[in-house]
């Protein structure tokens, strides 16, 4: 039994993760701001994770900050992102033996995530999502996507366009044709 | 309308017909209208079937196959035909393939990848046949490999007879003369044009604004580009996206300085939304690469996102919202259905569909001959009464099955097992069930990862070494070491238990989720549970006799995130210091307050 217990203590050992998160690394935004972040938390970004793994942890801790060059990674967006990963770094890993993908997709956002992502400044919101996408933080992109979709839910096309500032590039005829095709959606019960 | 859904959601893989019966009646409209579910099936199967036939080098059989296929699917809207990599067509076989395809009068989207190794490689006649017959054709992808032989200049002549053509994607592997591409100038309705052509002449783009007044998307891949091209392209009035891949710039300096300024200044006035330009410049083989990217958008507009991210975001919409949002913008139209791989059909959904356009669904009487057609698509069957058990043999991809009795998966006469290689299985075990049947079933379904059933078969189940989830509604046989891989367990026991019965649970070290519903809590079960279940995240216990000691033990579970306990009657939880445990969710407490 002891063997078994040893065997299952693998890479995902919580203690190791907690200890590693005490190590701080520096991330640099495209605007030049430098921010500290726990190592385990920062590695939620696959981009950062790959960099850390190829450079070696020691190098990352002692040398220059990791530069996130994408223009969506503004100071404000990076601060939000660090706030998110520092809250979520100890989430349980995804279990691929089950069809949890679908369940997870349908799951409602937690109260914390809802408050986190509900920012008034839409430019910042889109920066956070685009930056999270660039940094490959799947969980955070999902939070952003769910938030936007929850706002879209039940709205008309015009309302969606106004809310998300999307340009309508259909002609009136094209739009009518699509409406006709999808008439069943508007049918009353 | 189901057909419409299927047409739009081209990536669909799973249809969930939970609670719908009979499924054949629901799905037959889709099958009979001949829409993408079938197309999806065909895209895979058709290609491999043809590939196989080619591999055996029996072109006659292949044509028979194609002919039969076309005859049975005359309403196909989307077809992709590809030659095998090593296989090349001669003029006759190309003519024949195109002849067969031209019978598909409803065709809207056609992809032809041909390898022609024949001096007489003009496709002109073949393409004309298709153009004349398939009047609905809107999208054409043509990839032509002529094995270094020059392509006949007349090849594309007949494109002018494609009256509805909106999107053209052309890949030519050989250099060509000037006249080959001339017919493209007559396709005035084009909105999307992709050209992957080794050598192109500058003059091709002269006056392009007159030829393609509606062109929104232009993608060019060519060996050499000159700045003059851009000045022509810049005049396209409706252009929104321009993608350029080129190895060489004829005059590199000129490109850097002013050409793009021109392009932008002309197009800005015409509300160009985003120009995604990636240039890779190589100077006579030198590795001097220069990448330029320019994008123009408002920061707070969703337009700034590319299709990939947009598709990811809208992938969280419900199917209804996807349809509602289709006409938000063209980007939405492109992306909104991309991620639909799973549709759940319910009575309500069908009722809603049929209410609006009753006529659209022509319910075809149950036709067992159709079942072999869509059987291979089905991956999940849930509590459906199977009129003909043999149908199961058509469902090669079936991985989840829920039935009432084990005997349903055996042929009544031949006693042959009909469902193999399942991953998830639910059934009610009856005492009368044949032990041999169970044994045979287990032997052929070693990959099962999840079972929901009754206890007598535990001995048999212990042979399923891949098992990750087990739901028992009666009892558990002890001493099952092979269950040590279990990750999730739900145990409902209605009988009095002794200390020994639950001992084996302590060996399930990989448990992440445990639900126990017992009459009486066993005193010793939770002793040292922190060691037995180091990964347990979710614990739900409903039992009498939960003591302070029990909670004490539970609080030592290192990975616990959720604790549900609807039966707890005492106020112990109030004072209990779970904080140290980092619980993220605590359920059940509220019920009794």
Architecture overview:
Chain B: This is F-box domain-containing protein. Chain B: Residues 305-336 form the F-box domain. Chain B: It comes from Medioppia subpectinata. Chain B: Pfam families: F-box. The complex is a heterodimer of chains A (189) and B (593). With 189 residues, chain A is mostly helical. Chain A has a single domain (2-153), classed as 2-Layer Sandwich (Potassium Channel Kv1.1, Chain A). Chain A contains 12 helices and 3 strands; from the N terminus they run H-H-E-E-H-H-H-E-H-H-H-H-H-H-H. Chain A has helices spanning 2-8, 14-22, 39-42, 46-55, 57-62, 75-88, 100-106, 111-117, 122-135, 138-152, 157-164, 172-181, and strands at 24-28, 34-38, 66-67. The relative contact order of chain A is 0.11. Mean pLDDT of chain A is 83; it is low at 1-11. With 593 residues, chain B is α/β, with parallel strands linked by helices. Chain B has 2 domains: 77-93 and 105-334, Leucine-rich repeat, LRR (right-handed beta-alpha superhelix); 386-592, Alpha-Beta Horseshoe (Leucine-rich repeat, LRR (right-handed beta-alpha superhelix)). Chain B contains 19 helices and 19 strands. A 10-stranded parallel beta sheet of chain B has the order 10-11-12-13-14-15-16-17-18-19, with no helix packed on it. The two termini of chain B are 49 Å apart. The chains are: A mainly alpha (189), B alpha/beta (593). The interface between A and B is large, with 54 and 59 residues.
Q: List the uncertain runs of chain A.
A: 1-11
Q: What order do the strands of the largest sheet of chain A run in, or round the barrel if closed?
A: 2-1-3
Can you identify the CATH class of chain A?
Alpha Beta
- How is the CATH topology of chain A named? Potassium Channel Kv1.1, Chain A
Shape of chain B: elongated
Would you tell me which CATH topology of the largest domain in chain B applies?
A: Leucine-rich repeat, LRR (right-handed beta-alpha superhelix)
Residue-averaged pLDDT of chain B: 63
Distance between the termini of chain B: 49 Å
> Which CATH-level-2 architecture of the largest domain in chain B?
Alpha-Beta Horseshoe
Oligomeric form:
heterodimer
Largest sheet of chain B: 10 strands, parallel
Gyration radius of chain A (Cα, Å) is 21 Å
Q: Characterize the biggest β-sheet of chain A.
A: 3 strands, mixed
Q: Gyration radius of chain B, to the nearest Å?
A: 32 Å
For this structure, what is the CATH homologous superfamily of chain A? Potassium Channel Kv1.1, Chain A
| Major beta sheet, strand line-up of chain B | 10-11-12-13-14-15-16-17-18-19
Number of domains as seen in the coordinates of chain A:
1
């Amino acid at each position: 039994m002891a063997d078994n217990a040893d065997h299952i203590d693998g890479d995902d050992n919580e203690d190791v993760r907690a200890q590693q998160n005490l190590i701080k690394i520096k991330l640099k935004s495209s605007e030049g701001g430098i921010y500290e972040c726990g190592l385990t938390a920062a590695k939620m970004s696959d981009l950062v994770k790959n960099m850390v793994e190829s450079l070696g942890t020691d190098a990352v801790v002692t040398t220059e900050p990791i530069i996130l060059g994408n223009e969506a990674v503004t100071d404000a967006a990076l601060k939000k992102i660090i706030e998110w990963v520092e809250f979520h770094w100890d989430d349980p890993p995804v279990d691929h033996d089950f069809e949890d993908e679908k369940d997870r997709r349908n799951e409602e956002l937690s109260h914390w995530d809802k408050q986190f992502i509900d920012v008034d400044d839409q430019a910042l919101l889109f920066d956070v999502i685009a930056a999270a996408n660039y940094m490959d933080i799947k969980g955070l992109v999902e939070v952003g996507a769910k938030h936007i979709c929850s706002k879209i839910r039940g709205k008309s096309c015009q309302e969606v366009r106004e809310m998300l500032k999307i340009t309508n590039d259909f002609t009136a005829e094209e739009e009518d044709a699509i409406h006709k095709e999808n008439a069943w959606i508007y049918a009353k019960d | 309308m189901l057909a419409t859904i299927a047409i739009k959601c081209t990536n669909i893989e799973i249809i969930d017909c939970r609670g719908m019966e009979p499924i054949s009646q629901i799905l037959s409209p889709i099958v009979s209208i001949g829409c993408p579910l079938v197309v999806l099936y065909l895209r895979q199967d058709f290609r491999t079937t043809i590939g196989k036939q080619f591999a055996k080098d029996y072109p006659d059989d292949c044509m028979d196959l194609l002919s039969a296929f076309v005859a049975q699917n005359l309403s196909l809207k989307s077809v992709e035909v590809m030659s095998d990599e090593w296989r090349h067509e001669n003029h006759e076989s190309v003519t024949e393939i195109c002849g067969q395809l031209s019978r598909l009068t409803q065709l809207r989207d056609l992809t032809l990848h041909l390898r022609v190794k024949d001096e007489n490689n003009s496709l002109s006649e073949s393409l004309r046949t298709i153009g004349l017959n398939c009047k609905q054709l809107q999208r054409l992808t043509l990839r032509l490999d002529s094995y270094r032989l020059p392509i006949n200049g007349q090849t594309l002549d007949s494109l002018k007879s494609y009256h509805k053509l909106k999107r053209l994607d052309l890949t030519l592997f050989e250099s060509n003369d000037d006249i080959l591409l001339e017919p493209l100038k007559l396709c005035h309705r084009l909105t999307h044009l992709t050209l992957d052509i080794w050598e192109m002449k500058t003059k091709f783009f002269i006056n392009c604004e007159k030829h393609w007044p509606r062109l929104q998307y232009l993608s060019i891949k060519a060996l050499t580009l000159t700045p003059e091209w851009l000045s022509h392209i810049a005049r396209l009035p409706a252009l929104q996206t321009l993608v350029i891949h080129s190895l060489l710039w004829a005059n590199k300096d000129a490109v850097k300085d002013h050409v793009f300024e021109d392009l932008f200044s002309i197009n800005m006035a015409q509300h160009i939304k985003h120009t995604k330009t990636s240039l890779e410049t190589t100077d006579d083989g030198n590795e001097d690469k220069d990448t330029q990217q320019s994008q123009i958008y408002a920061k707070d507009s969703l337009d700034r996102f590319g299709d990939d991210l947009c598709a990811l975001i809208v992938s969280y919409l419900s199917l209804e919202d996807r349809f509602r949002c289709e006409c938000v913008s063209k980007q939405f139209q492109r992306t909104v259905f991309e991620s639909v791989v799973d549709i759940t059909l319910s009575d309500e959904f069908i009722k809603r569909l049929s209410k609006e356009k009753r006529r659209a669904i022509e319910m075809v009487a149950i036709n067992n001959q159709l079942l072999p057609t869509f059987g291979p698509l089905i991956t999940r069957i849930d509590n459906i009464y199977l009129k003909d058990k043999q149908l199961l043999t058509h469902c090669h991809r079936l991985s989840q099955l829920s039935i009432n009795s084990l005997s349903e998966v055996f042929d009544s006469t031949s006693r042959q097992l009909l469902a193999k290689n399942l991953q998830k299985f639910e059934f009610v075990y009856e005492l009368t069930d044949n032990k041999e049947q169970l044994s045979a079933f287990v032997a052929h379904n070693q990959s099962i990862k999840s079972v929901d059933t009754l206890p007598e078969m535990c001995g048999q189940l212990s042979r399923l070494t891949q098992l990750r989830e087990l739901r028992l509604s009666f009892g558990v046989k002890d001493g099952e070491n092979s269950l040590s891989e279990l990750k999730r367990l739900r145990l409902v026991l209605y009988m009095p238990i002794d200390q020994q019965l639950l001992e084996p649970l302590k060996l399930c070290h990989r448990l992440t989720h445990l639900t126990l519903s017992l009459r009486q809590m066993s005193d010793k079960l939770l002793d040292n549970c922190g060691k037995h279940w180091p990964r347990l995240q979710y614990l739900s216990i409903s039992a009498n006799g939960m003591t302070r000691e029990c909670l004490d033990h539970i609080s030592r579970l290192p990975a616990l995130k959720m604790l549900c306990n609807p039966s707890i009657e005492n106020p112990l939880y109030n004072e209990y210091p779970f904080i140290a445990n980092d619980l993220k969710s605590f359920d059940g407490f509220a019920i009794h307050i």
